[in-house]
Design goal:
- The structure is a single chain.
- α1 packs parallel to α2.
- The protein folds into two domains: 155 residues, Ribosomal Protein S5, domain 2, CATH 3.30.230.10; 116 residues, Alpha-Beta Plaits, CATH 3.30.70.890.
- Helices cover 29% and strands 26% of the residues.
- By secondary structure, the protein is of the alpha+beta class.
Length: 300
């Protein structure tokens, strides 16, 4: 809870990229929402959300991908603020919110949802409100927000709200690549040919990066064919990643960010450097997944 001795306290949170290692579309509900089975990890790269008390509400956006983002109530950050305020109106004092946008927009790695989750968590800490309602509040903002609130390796089912945490998960050296073209999730789902696929196979014990890739070889991202037809740069990104000799290449979410997994961090960093020399205008970053003990919590 905010104390009188620290009226200018700022709380900052990283909003990590959400990586769908596997994504199976298993059906569609009567209301049009698609049913999914997805193995998800979060990367140690992301946006940054900072909140602090203010005389009146303000919202600022910066960062390499901040240009053109809406600064009104259509932005998920402000929708998250408004939703939490409606839940706890007696505690929700005015705030200044700053979003540093380091992830590409509409890129299949959950940037907006992760921003909303980080906003909910930061404001809950600033306002001193209960956090056990955040998942329910987050679900009103989007199906990906509850899993972004969880922020650890997980299996997501249903429309994304049924979350099963994974206790132990190996270190995955990765490179993320995006060719710079936004992908429309609704258009990708509309272009699906088959919406009734098998769920993910049972998750075995995973003790190494090779175990993960062996399992992923039995899975898919069912959104890839539709996304690749709509956004041709996805195929270019996949080809570029395959040329770096990784263990596995796949698209995340509805695209257009693709990822590759490597044996070790050194190989991932070398691959990212080589790709940047060829495609300096692309979003390319070497990273790895957030582990169970990692702390990306509030920086006060």
């Amino acid at each position: 809870m905010l104390s009188p001795e620290a009226p200018e306290r700022t709380i900052s949170l990283i909003a990590p990229a959400k990586i769908n290692l596997a994504l199976h579309v298993t059906g569609r509900r009567d209301d049009g929402y698609h049913l999914l089975d997805s193995l998800v990890v979060f990367a140690r790269v992301g946006d940054k959300v900072s909140v602090k008390p203010a005389p009146f509400d303000t919202f600022e956006v910066s960062g390499p991908f901040g240009r053109g983002l809406p600064d009104d109530d259509t932005n998920l950050v402000l929708r998250a603020r408004n939703a939490l305020r409606a839940w706890y109106p007696e505690k929700a004092a005015p705030v200044a919110i700053h979003l540093e946008k380091h992830l590409p927009v509409a890129s299949g790695i959950g940037g907006g949802s992760s921003d909303a989750a980080a906003t909910l968590q930061a404001l809950a800490a600033l306002w001193g409100v209960e956090t056990n309602e955040l998942a329910a509040i987050g679900l009103t903002l989007g199906a990906d927000v509850p899993m972004c609130l969880y922020g650890q390796p997980l299996i997501a089912r249903g429309i994304g709200e049924e979350i099963e945490g994974i206790g132990d998960f190996p270190h995955l050296p990765m490179v993320l690549v995006n060719g710079g073209v936004a992908t429309s999730t609704p258009q990708v789902f509309s272009a699906l040919v088959n919406r009734d696929n098998q769920p993910l196979p049972g998750l075995p014990e995973l003790s190494s990066v090779r175990d993960v890739c062996l399992y992923l070889g039995k899975t898919d991202n069912h959104l890839y064919p539709a996304a690749e037809k709509l956004t041709t740069t996805i195929g270019d990104a996949m080809k570029a990643l395959r040329n770096t000799d990784p263990l596995l290449v796949r698209m995340s979410g509805s695209g257009g960010t693709c990822f590759a997994i490597y044996d070790n961090d050194r190989e991932a960093e070398a691959a990212a450097a080589a790709l940047k020399r060829v495609q300096p205008g692309w979003f390319i970053v070497a990273t790895h997944n957030i582990m169970g003990g990692d702390d990306l919590g509030p920086d006060r």
